[in-house]
Amino acid sequence: xxxxxxxxxxxxxxxxxxxxxxxxxxxxxxxxxxxxxxxxxxxxxxxxxxxxxxxxxxxxxxxxxxxxxxxxxxx
Length: 75
Fold this sequence. Notes:
The chain is of the alpha+beta class. Helices cover 39% and strands 32% of the residues. The chain has helices at 3-13, 42-59, and strands at 16-24, 27-34, 64-70.
């Protein structure tokens, strides 16, 4: 799966201020900055991102995801 496809999925599904995606085949690194992350735990932030990418993970297009999830204030 191409980084721009993953970026589009994240941007269209989450209220993001910034998204960066790097991909090495099926291994993906993402940085997601969103106001939706304000006041929630790091685990809940990751769960939001995983939920958005679930179809791609289930299909095998994405095998592993490394992520940084930040609020705009943290960014």
